[in-house]
Specification:
heterodimer, A: alpha/beta, Spore Coat Polysaccharide Biosynthesis Protein SpsA, Chain A, two-stranded antiparallel sheet, 8 helices, 31% helix, B: alpha/beta, six-stranded mixed β-sheet
């Protein structure tokens, strides 16, 4: 049996308290990741069942090592609103033992406010905005288990406050994730933004070059992983569906 | 006389659009910062070449000639756009670039990608450029080692002048910035990518161009490009007064 060394882990849970079914996003994301994993000899694990000990599905991400132990050398956690390009290179071959992610620097007001809001849990920690990452696509190794242990511990200690968090527009887990990376002094590798193309609408990347005969949208040409965020969530399913219809033929071989 | 670092600004004021830029606030801020840090500020306010043949943007690359003409003993050079304001406490970014060519990434947008594709096709033999290494030429840090390179770039411009003018007229994809990025990449020039804090562009899209001047808390050099409303001049004046006069 061919034992695979690398894993892509995705949380795609339909949650009663949420208006939007994540399976409606994941149904377009998963085929792309299945194809890419097969091509690059990696396993794909999709978590569809919510652990009731958490107040929100996002925290199921942190269970990655509870579920797979030390079976895999390298792991990527990807959001269920991401799609990977059919010919994206094997990201696992591009790093050694670093924790890899893309900078999140599109909405600096959000990041500033979010860091201020969650600082109450980390009064001694400063995050340089240049190192603030998007936690929707991260790649690491089994040696990074401590991060997820710490995140889970942090969550359980602060569960009541986190579950009832009502500060608007400061996000949920991402900034906490960033604070903990900083607290644990994790060696981060900031990778090229093509590995987690967020806010594509704001960047005009859904458009094509109107002065060229090539009608391929920019995001298809220049992204490896497309992250469908940064626009109203009610548009997400439709945009992912349109994308899938545009590119699905590339995943059929 | 000891060699000093030089701040070079091209500020050729022609027409209403230039007036609305509020260049004077930029120069005042850089003048104060240069004085505080014992640097030299050099401003070019008249065109050397006919602007229809050589836009003000390309005049930035004349810096070495101007320094030689003025007999200025220089160490490092920062070319900064005249729609920037520097914070009075901005750290010495000259040191951060080391001996490399220093610049700050331009946040990707449709124009950047279209500009890259256009210049790639018409000037640079379909050379591919990664958008995440594409710098904004509103801040470029250089030193003596870059003198010949930059002079070569000016020759490259004049040798292809008609083509550059045609591209800008037909496609509107910019003057100096994209060609400089291609030249850096095709000539394998070592580039130090500096923090966004040293050339904070597209402030509205980053959602930090607020009346309480949030951006001034997040970095050091504010670049009022992409025409923030009502005018760049409005923001330049407001920022300058907040940082330099109302202290």
């Amino acid at each position: 049996m061919n034992m695979k060394k690398n894993l892509i882990y995705m949380v795609a849970i339909d949650y009663d308290k949420y208006q939007w079914k994540h399976s409606n996003f994941a149904k377009y994301a998963i085929p792309t990741w299945e194809y890419w994993c097969k091509k690059n000899n990696a396993d794909l694990l999709v978590v569809r069942d919510h652990d009731p000990s958490f107040g929100a599905p996002i925290w199921n991400k942190e269970l990655v090592f509870e579920k797979v132990g030390d079976k895999y050398d390298k792991i990527g956690i990807v959001d269920d609103d991401t799609m990977i390009k059919w010919d994206a290179p094997n990201i696992f071959e591009t790093y050694e033992d670093e924790f890899c992610a893309v900078r999140d620097d599109d909405n600096l007001a959000f990041i500033h406010n979010s860091m201020n809001a969650y600082k109450k849990f980390f009064p001694d920690i400063e995050i340089d905005m240049d190192k603030y990452i998007n936690a929707g696509v991260v790649f690491f190794t089994k040696k990074h288990k401590e991060i997820f242990d710490y995140l889970l511990k942090f969550y359980y200690i602060n569960k009541e406050e986190i579950d009832n968090w009502n500060v608007p527009n400061v996000g949920r887990e991402q900034t906490i994730f960033n604070y903990i990376l900083e607290k644990l002094n994790i060696n981060k590798k900031i990778i090229a933004p093509c590995w987690n193309l967020v806010n594509m609408h704001k960047k005009g990347m859904f458009q094509h070059n109107f002065q060229s005969e090539d009608k391929t949208p920019y995001f298809i040409k220049y992204g490896n992983i497309w992250h469908f965020t940064g626009f109203p969530i009610e548009q997400r399913e439709s945009i992912m569906k349109q994308t899938w219809n545009l590119i699905r033929k590339n995943y059929e071989s | 006389m000891k060699a000093k670092n030089v701040i070079f600004i091209v500020s050729i004021n022609k027409g209403q659009r230039s007036n609305d830029q509020g260049y004077e606030w930029s120069i005042k801020s850089w003048s104060a910062w240069a004085k505080k840090n014992d640097h030299i500020l050099l401003v070019l306010d008249e065109p050397v070449y006919d602007l229809t043949k050589c836009k003000a943007n390309w005049h930035k690359l004349l810096v070495y000639d101007l320094l030689e003409n003025e007999n200025i003993n220089y160490d490092k050079i920062a070319i900064v756009d005249s729609d920037t304001i520097v914070h009075p406490n901005c750290p010495n970014f000259f040191e951060l670039a080391g001996d490399k060519f220093g610049g700050v990434v331009n946040p990707v947008n449709e124009w950047v990608l279209r500009s890259i594709e256009t210049y790639s096709k018409y000037v640079f033999d379909n050379h591919k450029l990664n958008f995440w290494k594409y710098i904004n030429t509103g801040l470029m840090v250089m030193n003596k080692n870059h003198k010949d390179i930059v002079k070569e770039w000016i020759n490259f411009y004049f040798n292809n002048q008609d083509l550059f003018i045609q591209i800008q007229d037909k496609f509107g994809v910019g003057n100096d910035q994209t060609p400089i990025n291609f030249l850096l990449d095709t000539q394998n020039i070592d580039v130090e990518l500096l923090s966004y804090k040293f050339n904070m562009q597209e402030l509205p899209r980053k959602e930090i161009l607020t009346e309480d001047l949030l951006f001034t808390k997040l970095g050091w050099i504010y670049h009022f490009n992409t025409w923030p409303k009502p005018t760049p001049g409005y923001w330049m004046k407001k920022t300058y007064e907040a940082l330099y006069e109302n202290k």
